[in-house]
Structures are given as structure tokens and as C-alpha cells.
Amino acid sequence: MFNIHQIKEEICDIGRRIYNRGFAAANDGNISFRIDENRVICTPTGISKGFMKPEDLCIVDMNGNQIAGTKKRTSEILLHVTIMKARPEVKSVVHCHPPHATAFGIAREAIPQCLMPEVDINMGDVPIAQYALPGGQGFADVIMPYIMKSDIIVQANHGTVSVGPTIERAYWLAEMLDAYCRICLIARDLGKVEYFTRDEAEELLDLKQKWGFKDPRADLENCELCANDIFRDSWKETGVGHRAFQPPTFKRNDDATTQQKTSITPKCTCGGNNNDSTKNTNTNQIDDERELIIKTITDRVIKALAG
Ligand SMILES: [Zn+2]
Question: Rounded CA gap, 290 and 294, in Å?
């Protein structure tokens, strides 16, 4: 049995942290926590997350109908309760707009992997879900396939949704993802991004299994370990690809001698229908164009040097 007042205090505290870190401007973001079979405490609509008081919060049933509170519940509660119904172990849902993670969702750039151990252990593949108009059931339907496989997702042109057994854990994933995305962007600006080797990536994945963290990569054969492959089936729809970050293409249980650091056209052979080459049209087309530009520039330089 949860102490309702304590949960409300905690939601207000996490709201302050979200606001103070710049993850929710003005009235952005929403937070919820499931207190029993049929009741969820959530933030109201139209309120700054940085200045909430426990009495501002609402209680809804598992269909999103408001059953307590003087302020109107968040319009995005349907997404929260849909997630909680599908994943009963999830007690809390946090939605916010962390700028660096959200930027990846606007650029439709796959979140890089194999760069920091804590991130790979805690998150692994982070998907980017299609854009959908916020608020309705359609919005929830777009998110669901991804949130069934990952505790945090980036919503294209919107923000993040993260879940957990506690409010702190759900929030913490958003904070971790944003800090990571920021570090990735700074490293790229420095001019060099060095990924884990295949052995280092495998070592982390094995450790993750040992510690009881689930990672879909561990169950897939012939899967590229660092290319965010698990969700590649969705890339044609979302327009996500590797443009700013080119990951190494080695696979789990590859022969070490065939390791490749980079590839212009990474191929994924893991998961369902991934073998269908038409699925990567967007990414391949962009990669082909890039290759053509590089070739044209190289030809010109060689010609100029030859006098
Ligand atoms: Zn939002």
C-alpha cells in the first residue's frame, strides 16, 4: 500500500528536477504513478512541472477518467495508462522534452551505441518512434510497439517517454539519455568518435545478462552489436538512419578478424524481416549520395594535384 501523499511529494520533486534541468519548458511534460489496480496519480494539464504542489495532482482510473483532484488531468494520460496496462510491472511513466535526446528525434538520427558502458548496460537500443499528434489513443498506439521492448523511447519531433517501477527510475532514464546524447554531440564536434571494439561490446552485453538486465541483442543471431539494429524495421517509416554517427558493423560472435570499424552501407540481418533490403531505402539512398559526393571531391582533388 502506497502512501498517497508521499507519492505526490515525489512527483512534485521529480517535476522540479525536470524543470530545473530544462527538460520541460513552460507547461511541458507529464508524470504518473500507479498506486493500485485501478488508480493512477498524475500531473494536471497546463501547469509548470517546476512549481507543482501535492494538492495540484489528479487521480485517474485505468481508462484515464478523472476520479479525484480539482485540476484537469494531463491530456496525455491515455498513453500512460495504456503502457501500464500492457506492462503491469511499470508503475511510473515520465514524459518530457530533454533537448539533446529530442534533437536526435528531430534529426531522425539513430541513438549511437557502444560508446559508454553505463548507457549500454542501462538502456541498450533506444528507439525513435514515429511522430503522432499528442493526446489521443493514436498517439499511444504509435508508442506501444517500442515501449514493449525498451524502457525509454524518443518520440520523433517531440520528446521522450520513459518508464520504471519507481518515478525516480523512470526520470533517471531520461536524464541519463539526455546527458549521453549531449556527450555524443560534443565528442562528434571534437572530430572523432571511437566506438568499443567487438570484444568490449560483447563483454558489456555478457555482463548485462549476468546482472539480469534484458537486452534483445542477446537473443538475436547475426545482429550488429552497435548499430541500433533492433528497431531497424521501423526506420523506413520513421526516416531514422545513421547520418551523423557511423557505428561499427561487427556482429555478435563474428570472427574477430572480420571486424570492421565503419561501413558506408551497414546491413542488418537480425530480427524478423530485416533481410528485406527495400527496408533500408532511405538510409542507403543517403549513404549512396554521400559516397558519390566523396568520390566527386576525391576525383577533383586528384585531377588538381596532377596539374
Ligand atoms: Zn510533450
Answer: 6
More confident residue, 282 or 163: 163
Q: Is 174 left (phi over 0), alpha (psi -120 to 50) or beta?
A: alpha
> Which of 117, 34, 50 has the alpha carbon at shortest distance from 42?
34
Ligand 1 geometric centre to CA of 233 (Å): 25
Distance 48 CA to ligand 1 centre (A): 13
CATH hierarchy code of domain 4-190: 3.40.225.10
Distance 121 CA to ligand 1 centre (A): 27
Contact predicate 162/138, CB 8 Å: no
Domain boundaries defined on the chain: 4-190, 198-281
Backbone angles phi, psi at 241, to 5 degrees: -165, 180
Mean confidence (pLDDT) of the chain: 85
Supply the pLDDT for residue 253. Answer: 65
